[in-house]
Design a protein that fits this description.
With 136 residues, this protein is an all-alpha fold. It has helices at 6-32, 38-66, 70-97, 104-108, 113-120, 127-130.
């Protein structure tokens, strides 16, 4: 197995930190509106993990695709997107189908956190780095 590129690790850490920060804010909002319970925490943790994993896997596939011929690279990226979409669907379906374990809203909202992180990336000098690999 190839070594994980430092850019993949760096950008995944950036996304993970942003997801963590937004998760703390979301937990606080649920607490302030009096709707917090353990299902909010579990839904947030479950899907927060999934979105960071999704971004990390995207980075690995892009790292692999860069070394391939254009036709093979395109196929690799398309396969990556399909597999990652199936993975995210499975995580979200699990969260939605188990409402006693996961709060639905606390499970759906974190899906947007990586996109928010990417939108804020230019403020941290990350625009060219984080968007090279495509969307999350």
């Amino acid at each position: 197995m190839k070594k994980i590129d430092s850019a993949v690790m760096r950008e995944t850490r950036y996304i993970a930190l942003f997801v963590l920060a937004l998760s703390v804010i979301m937990q606080a909002v649920f607490l302030l509106i009096g709707r917090w319970d353990k299902t909010v925490l579990f839904g947030n943790l479950f899907i927060g993990f999934a979105v960071v994993l999704n971004f990390f896997l995207m980075g690995l596939f892009v790292q692999k695709a860069v070394a391939l011929e254009p036709k093979e690279a395109k196929k690799t990226v398309q396969t990556s997107m399909a597999l990652r979409n199936v993975m995210m669907f499975a995580f979200l379906a699990t969260a939605v189908l188990l409402p006693k374990a996961f709060n639905i809203w606390a499970s759906l909202i974190p899906v947007a956190f990586p996109r928010i992180a990417i939108a804020f990336a230019p403020l941290f000098g990350k625009k060219e780095k984080i968007t090279e690999g495509g969307e999350s």
